[in-house]
Amino acid sequence: MRPPVWLWIPAAVAILVVVVPLLGLISSVDVATLWPLLTSEASVTALLLSLRTSVIATTLCILLGAPLALLLARGRWRGQSALRALVLVPLVLPPVVGGLALLTTFGRRGLLGEHLVAAGLSISYSTTAVVLAQTFVALPFLVLSLEGAVRGLDRRQEEAAATLGAGPWRRLTRVTLPLVAPGLLSGSVLAFARALGEFGATLTFAGSAQGRTRTLPLEIYLQREVDPDAAIALSLVLVVLATVIVGSVYARTTRAAA
Questions:
Q1: Is Coiled coil among the key words of this record (predicted)?
Q2: Which residues have C-beta within 8 Å of that of residue 179, sequence separation ≥ 6?
Q3: Contacts of residue 105, Cβ cutoff 8 Å, sequence gap at least 6
Q4: So where are the chain's domains?
């Protein structure tokens, strides 16, 4: 059934709200100076650090978030709703508050940090802190996507596998995970994109040391004060990366669902 035609009015406004600011950013780019700005040492260092830490954070989100999503979708225990709400809190938490939460937990005088420091492990204001901050804000995206995919799964194939003698591990790896692979892929890409754009929690928990904790969003923020053209050029890089990553996965999942 085709949707009512009048829906195009608010839909068009919604598209303009998103697209017009991006066009404004693109129109502000000085093409003549774009390449030198993008290939400067500070820009390349920040971009490589962002990509490296985002890949590690996304890997952690998959390893930790996939089991959690499966348990939330299939498990039944007291307090399950409260746990789901807590896991999703970083989605709505102001980034600086997330950074403070990490700092008061893993900082030198934090809840766990002082014990880690006593054991010779300092996390805050290090590259590890960047990865932890990115994982903290990106994990809910993967959990939410994968949990929704598992909940919408037709369980008859799993039940058929069980009747044929497949154990829980075999059903999980041979039936469930292949069926929810599009949801896992979508969640992973959203988590990667969120980690790549993380700013507030990283600045609060990890600081801004060039080559160690200064990711691309932090470099954009600093360049905005001294070189607005460089900040705009680097912003364009983030926009292009996010568009390519999210767009390619969205097209893939749409084709799979068709």
A1: no
A2: 153, 154, 157
A3: 111, 112, 113
A4: 32-257
pLDDT at 73: 92
State which CATH number among 3.40.50.300, 3.40.190.10, 1.10.3720.10, 1.20.120.530 fits the domain covering 32-257.
Answer: 1.10.3720.10
Give me 230's structure tokens: 């460089």
Q: How far is CA 213 from CA 102, 126, 139, 253, in A?
A: 15, 6, 20, 34
Interatomic CA distance for residues 47 and 235, integer angstroms: 11
Give yes or no for residue 258 having a pLDDT over 80: no
Q: What is the tens place of the pLDDT at every residue in 133-189?
A: 999 999 999 999 999 999 988 888 888 888 888 888 888 888 899 999 988 988 999
Residue type, 154: D
- d(CA 189, CA 55) in angstroms, rounded, equals 10
Helix residue ranges per DSSP H, the chain = 8-27, 31-38, 41-74, 80-92, 95-106, 113-118, 127-151, 156-163, 168-171, 177-179, 181-196, 200-206, 216-226, 228-257
**How many other C-beta atoms lie within 10 A of the C-beta of residue 29?**
15
- Radius of gyration for the chain, computed over Cα atoms and rounded to the nearest angstrom: 21
